[in-house]
Design goal:
The chain is mainly α. It has two domains: 34 residues, no CATH class; 319 residues. Helix content is 64%, strand content 0%. It is built from 17 helices and no strands.
Length: 393
């Protein structure tokens, strides 16, 4: 690669201060950083040495998402074959699904790169690697049938409104990928509301998603209702494995769990948030089940058990990759427990009490993003009061 290094070194003066293309230096710097590791070194103390930096963090998160991408492509292909009444191998499903989701990925990265480079040029700062993770997450929370122009608009909204207006990477208060998803959720509900299947099959092929089945019926047992569906296999084990219609990367609790384990082992994701969310979901689901039995409510969603809530919708994906995102979540250990707990609890509340929004995880995480600083504030103030009380003694 010496020849490429020589070319970049030769054109670098054109982009540096005083050069003809000085304003475009962020674009050159981003290209150079992607192709080669930086050779910059600090010249004065203090020096902090660590084996991880922002680039490695972002790459590791993308690596954690790879299982969801691979399974997502296979599931998209499988659902297409199922809709067409065909029998196909996993290789055929992978290729067919991959060809379907590749344009979504390409449009997301093209739109994301455009806005990141534009803001970098205008603000005269380097391009942050953070946009790679945002653009890697957005396709996974989209259905395979989403129009590409909506992908571009949603990505634009997520990056510009969700991140750049706050100052860029590390300063946003809401998860940009979820901002993009929520934008589509409220502006084009017919495409992403969660009440119809998202299968790239023949025209006119439709049906209810797993969450929409109990949400649409009254005075029924949710589990019995799900098992009675013949169009799709909504058994618990099949939903855990992920062979159901849904957003590209959200259907498999199994592979979301693998990604979450990778993030926890590498220290990039907080296990406290994940465990707290599971506890919050379980506790609230037990409470809603009790309410349904005691009050005799006609709301079928109240009868949905906790282990079904866990494998339905985007809960596993949201908790693994969105709730653990360090910028928008709680930063104290106690705060992470509270933050995760309320995400799980609010997911069940939104799904059950307001079935018009069958996918409650997205709204729960965005709501807790807003409260994360307040949670940390009370945790820190509590620590201060305890220390002051000890010193007073």
């Amino acid at each position: 690669m010496r020849w490429l290094r020589n070319i970049l070194d030769k054109v670098e003066p054109v982009f540096k201060k005083g050069g003809k293309l000085e304003k475009l230096y962020p674009i050159f710097e981003a290209t150079d950083t992607i192709l080669f590791s930086t050779d910059e070194r600090t010249h004065s103390g203090p020096h902090i040495r660590d084996s991880i930096d922002v680039k490695r963090v972002m790459i590791l998160v993308v690596v954690a998402l790879i299982p969801c991408y691979i399974f997502g492509a296979m599931n998209v292909g499988y659902q297409m074959a199922l809709a067409l009444g065909e029998t196909s191998t996993w290789q055929q499903n992978l290729i067919r699904g991959g060809l379907k989701i590749l344009p979504i990925i390409a449009v997301t990265f093209a739109a994301g790169a455009f806005w990141e480079l534009l803001f970098a040029v205008v603000r005269k700062h380097s391009v942050s690697e953070g946009f790679l993770v945002t653009c890697a997450l957005i396709p996974l929370v989209m259905p395979a049938t989403i129009p590409l122009w909506q992908v571009a608009v949603a990505t634009t909204f997520g990056i510009v409104i969700g991140k750049e207006i706050f100052g860029g990477v590390g300063m946003n208060i809401f998860n940009p990928a979820l901002v993009a998803r929520s934008f589509l959720f409220f502006t084009y509900p017919a495409r992403i509301s969660g009440d119809k299947v998202w299968v790239a099959g023949p025209d006119g092929y439709s049906g209810a998603t797993a969450l929409a089945v109990p949400a649409a019926e009254l005075n029924q047992d949710a589990v019995t209702l799900l098992e009675s569906v013949t169009q799709f296999d909504f058994s618990w084990i099949n939903m855990f494995n992920g062979w159901i219609p849904g957003s590209i990367g959200e259907t498999s609790t199994l592979w979301c769990g693998v990604g979450a384990l990778f993030l926890v082992i590498t220290g990039l994701g907080s296990w406290r948030v994940i465990v707290g969310a599971i506890l919050g979901l379980t506790g609230m689901a037990v409470l809603t089940n009790f309410m349904a039995e005691v009050t005799g409510s006609s709301n079928t969603m109240l009868t949905l058990p906790a282990h079904y809530h866990l494998v339905m919708g985007g809960f596993a994906f949201g908790v693994a990759f969105m709730a653990t995102e360090p910028v928008t979540g709680a930063h104290t250990d106690k705060g992470r427990w509270v933050y995760g707990f309320f995400i799980g609890a609010l997911t069940v509340i939104i799904r059950s009490i307001n079935p018009a929004y069958p996918e409650g995880t997205m709204l729960a995480i965005l709501l807790m993003n807003a409260f994360a600083p307040l949670i940390d504030y009370f945790v820190i103030q509590g620590n201060v009061k305890r220390r002051m009380a000890r010193y007073a003694q």
